[in-house]
Structure formats: C-alpha cells, structure tokens
C-alpha cells in the first residue's frame, strides 16, 4: 500500500488535478481534452470528491462522484502511473461505494485499457458500454457527392422536429438507447455551448427526412441515417461535408465517438480518414449488471 494524505476535493485542487491528468494522458494515451480545463472542471470542479497527496504534497490520486439521472452514482478518477497496482484505485472505489451504499455505483473510464478491465474484474465491476474515440486531422477530406434529389437544410426552429424524428429512427434500435421526447432532446443538443446549428444538417428526400448530423466546435456529435436508406452514401456525404465546414472555420482536428459494436459506422469513419485514439467505457457493480 502507498501512504497518501487524503482530503475532500476543493476548487483549490484544480491546478494539481490538471497536472495529474497530463501525467496520466502521457502514460495512457486517449483524448487530449481529458487534461484540458473544461474537462477537468466538468469532472472535478465540485466538493463531492477525494484527493490523495504524496509526501511532497503533490496530488497523485483523485476521485469524484456525480449522480446520473437521480438513479445511480457515477465515479471517475485518476491515479498517477507511478503508484498504480498499490491499492489506490481500490481505495477510491471503496470511498465511492461508501458514500451511498444503497445506490448502484457506475464507473466511467475515459480511456479503457487492459489494466482498467483487470481492475474492474478485481473489484466486482462489469463493463456494460464502450465506444471508440476517433480523430480526424482535417488534412485529407474525401469528396462524397450528395444525391441531387436530396435537399440539405440546417438546424432551426422549423427543422428540429424532423432532426428528432431521424434521430429516433436512426438510434432507436441500438442497445442501450434512451429515448427523449422532442423538447428534452432539443434542450440536450442546444445545451452544448459549442453547438453549431448552421453547420448541422438534415437531408430531405421529398418530404421525408432521411439522415442528419449535429456538429460542435471540434466534434461530430451525432450522425444518423434511417435504416431503409443506409448503404447509399448519405452518412458519408454528411460526414465529409461537416469536416470541410469545420476546416473552413479554422479547426485543426475533429473528434467523434462510435459505439464499439457499430462496426459499419466504424468502417465508414475509417474510410473517411478518422483514426482510433482510445476507448471510453462504463462499468457497473456486478450485482446491478446481473439484474
């Protein structure tokens, strides 16, 4: 075991957590944004957390809890690579479980690996969801023409309902799909301060909405094609068009996440120039997963 000095998380810890995130990123790979200020603040800018300091006073471990949809606690954390394997992760997990033992605990891993899977198995967690994180450097964007019979329109008050309809049709069959009504889904999409409505597009075939993409500053947030129209280049066109639009805005890279089991989408994105950079995963207590 490693002897650490533990204390409750506070806003004064953010600089030390950013440095710890950079150390973990250098060792593990994954999303560079993990060590950026917005990401660090999203996970750790509150007081429902725990930090561990070594003998020099540096933060070498941190864990934090958030309640997701009021039904379970999600824990996320960082452990300095130099002290992994010494039980620190287990201490953080035990702390999270003890905060509310009657509520099922979920663990979010921003860059899943063999080590995190071994940790989950050792501590009674089961992986229930994973998505590949992919990156495009915007250097070489293929041209994917649009069928001239199709019309592309941007996100707006008069098109949001059609976007929502295609979203439901595109993702409703996916494992773990969580439905949202129109108002809730629109609020979710527009709550992102970096959402780009003018560059988010809906494809119409006559009066039928058949495909859509929503875009933010550096991310392809969602791309979907109704099942009956897949395999005809609609998704490829929307993706290539979005990459071109973001490059014109001065972006230097673009990211997306695709469910691990969605092999067709992964192949499409790879053919358009995206490369894998990591895996984001969610684990739950084994007893919860069994239920």
From TrEMBL:
InterPro entries registered for this protein in UniProt: Acyl_CoA_acyltransferase, Bact_Acetyltransf, GNAT_dom
EC number of this enzyme: 2.3.1.189
Regions annotated as coiled coil: none
Superkingdom assignment: Bacteria
Record-annotated N-acetyltransferase domain positions: 4-148, 150-291
Keywords per UniProt: Acyltransferase, Transferase
Keyword Calcium: no
Pfam families documented for this protein: Acetyltransf_1
Record keyword S-adenosyl-L-methionine present: no
Gene3D superfamilies xref list: 3.40.630.30
Enzyme class, spelled out: transferase
GO molecular function (one): mycothiol synthase activity
Name this protein carries in UniProt: Putative Mycothiol acetyltransferase
Lineage of origin: Bacteria, Bacillati, Actinomycetota, Actinomycetes, Micrococcales
């Amino acid at each position: 075991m490693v002897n650490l000095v533990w204390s409750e998380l506070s806003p004064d810890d953010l600089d030390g957590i950013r440095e710890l995130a950079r150390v973990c990123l250098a060792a593990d790979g994954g999303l560079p944004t993990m060590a950026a200020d917005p990401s660090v603040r999203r996970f750790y800018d509150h007081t429902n957390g725990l930090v561990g300091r070594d003998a020099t006073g540096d933060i070498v471990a941190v864990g934090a809890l958030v309640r997701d949809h009021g039904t379970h606690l999600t824990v996320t954390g960082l452990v300095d690579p130099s002290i992994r394997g010494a039980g620190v992760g287990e201490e953080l997990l035990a702390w999270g479980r003890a905060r509310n033992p009657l509520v099922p605990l979920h663990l979010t891993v921003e860059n899943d690996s063999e080590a995190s899977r071994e940790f989950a198995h050792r501590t009674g967690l089961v992986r229930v969801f994973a998505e590949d994180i992919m990156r495009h450097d915007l250097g070489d964007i293929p041209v994917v023409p649009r069928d001239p019979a199709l019309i592309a329109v941007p996100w707006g008050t008069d098109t949001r309902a059609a976007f929502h309809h295609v979203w439901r049709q595109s993702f409703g069959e996916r494992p773990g799909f969580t439905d949202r009504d129109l108002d809730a889904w629109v609020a979710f999409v527009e709550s992102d301060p970096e959402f780009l409505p003018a560059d988010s597009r809906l494809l119409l075939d006559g009066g039928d909405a058949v495909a859509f993409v929503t875009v933010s500053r550096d991310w392809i947030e969602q791309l979907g094609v109704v099942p009956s129209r897949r395999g005809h280049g609609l998704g490829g066109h929307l993706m290539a068009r979005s990459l071109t639009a973001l490059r014109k805005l001065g972006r230097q890279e673009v990211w997306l996440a695709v469910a691990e089991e969605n092999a067709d989408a992964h192949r499409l994105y790879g053919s358009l120039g995206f490369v894998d950079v990591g895996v984001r995963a969610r684990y739950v207590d084994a007893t919860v997963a069994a239920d």
